[in-house]
Amino acid sequence: MRRSDKKQIVIVSGSLLLIGILLRELDQIFIANIAFLLASAFAGIPIVIKAYQSLRLRIISIELLVTIAVTGAIIIGEYVESAAVTFLFLFGAYLESRTLEKTRSSLRSLMDLAPQQARILLNNQKMFVPVEDVKERDIVFVQSGEKIPVDGKVRVGHASVNEATITGEAIPVLKSKNDKVYSGTILDTGYLELEAERVGENTTFSKILQLVEEAQDSKAKTQKYLERFASFYTPIILLLAIVVFLFSKDIELTLTFLVISCPGALVISAPVSIVAGIGNGAKNGILLKGGEIVEQLSQIDVVAFDKTGTLTVGTPEVSSIKAFGISEKELLELSATAELFSEHHLGKAIVKEADKRNIALNKEPREFRVFKGKGIEAKVAERQLVIGTRKLLLEYKIQLDDKVRAYVASEEEKGQTVVLVSDTQTVLGVISISDQLRPEAVMAIQKIKQSGIKKIVMLTGDNIAVAEIIANQLKLDGYYAELLPEQKVERIKNLKSQGYKVAMVGDGINDAPAIASADIGIAMGGAGTDVAMETADVVLMSDRLDRLPLAVKLARATVLNMKQNMYFAVAIVVLLLVGVLTKTVFLASGMFIHEASVLLVILNAIRLVRYKDKQKNGIIEYKSNKLISKIN
To answer: DSSP for 275-310?
Structure first.
């Protein structure tokens, strides 16, 4: 039934109930009873239909309990009670559906921001077309105040873009040539010409909407338990009602018992909280992939971080180059050419440095091989190169002489990540690379500690000297250095075997195995990273570390809200049943209290939509900064 139809039925039945009460006060009992019966019929028919539909599916529903109770009330001549119960039940259902929509307000507000049209170049003219008609590689024009309709790359123009719909960050981001932009974001000031790269359902914004919708429809363990409980509870109540009648011989008491026992507030106590919590997360650039994920996130007590791209900015830069036996330029040209196909942060940094120094890379590497967590091997200009860590060079039985060892040690003491470049016999040089801490990292770690997390550790493939410097700067509880991807997985499993609930935070690409092995995988993927959105349980779309403590606190607030609703719902049912059995609560008054409890549960859940992370004066104290482990 549509909500508008339900509203009309509520108005008609409510008006008839009110007319009946007024006529009864005027001693027009016969006409009053007709009004009560008409009110019962108008409000009762939808209830009976739903009860019948449930029975056809072999489900004993709440509507069936109400139908039996109302039918019995009419048979024994309690017309006021039958009219009041049907009206209150339908009115409560109407208010419930209307109020429940507010818990989805974050998703609806996102959907409202979905672009409807785009201005593209068509037949050498700028024309508006429906956004679904835009194709990849179309040229799209966006002016101030307009929504960006596609994911694309800037061809021409400069503009500030509000990316709050994707990242939750309201501060506009400057965009210029070759920068990425995302569908659903708003161009504040400026002008952009874009080349469409992803359109329609493939855009980041569409994928976020899809993920949030799926997450809000997914069920927490508690919710699944409550639904199983309700399927057994309702038949048990019918049997208990028969027992009550057999012992009391009081049909009115039995009918009241049936109505009051409806577990309406209990059944919705979990889903409304989950929907509201996930909606709040979406509004703040945090994708929580379902009710079960929210529950698990609320229970974590250890957080393990990757370093590069997670605790650091993830855009490492070459800080120094030391060549042995060849020139710096030749060393950089050889290593950059070898790294052309590399997807690793350090490899990209070397290629970027060659570009910065205007070194032309005219050749492509041959026989290119990647050794995860160690480095690469490639053939450049008939020269076989091995580039990476000391472990990789040792596997090739390439020894480091004293001069190279001393230089590497001095660079690592400065907190530099060193990349060794060699041929199959000797080391040709060392490239030092640095990566800055995220500006929000220190405060984020402090807030995570304050939230009650027992242990925060770092897992990194970097050398132990760099790991120690980062760990000391962030005051972590421990770190594990020089790890291969499979060793990160082992560390996660080891923490879990100690009884901890572990969350792994990484960039969603290189750390996929560790993220998958943790109780909760969290991706610092940033806007538009498909791998991050699909691999992890939680995605921080803003690519900001300070969103993580908010995600943890929001999960805990959601679970607390869900428990509050459950305890309140159970308490109301118990109190009402006591009132019924002691004959202090009657059919109509009991139904009124029951429906009021349903609304209170929903209103309590709506508070989550406005939940914010509160912090006094922005100051948090460290409780412990002791490093508990150093692993070579």
So the answer is: HHHHHHHHHTTEEE--HHHHHHHHH--EEEEEIIII
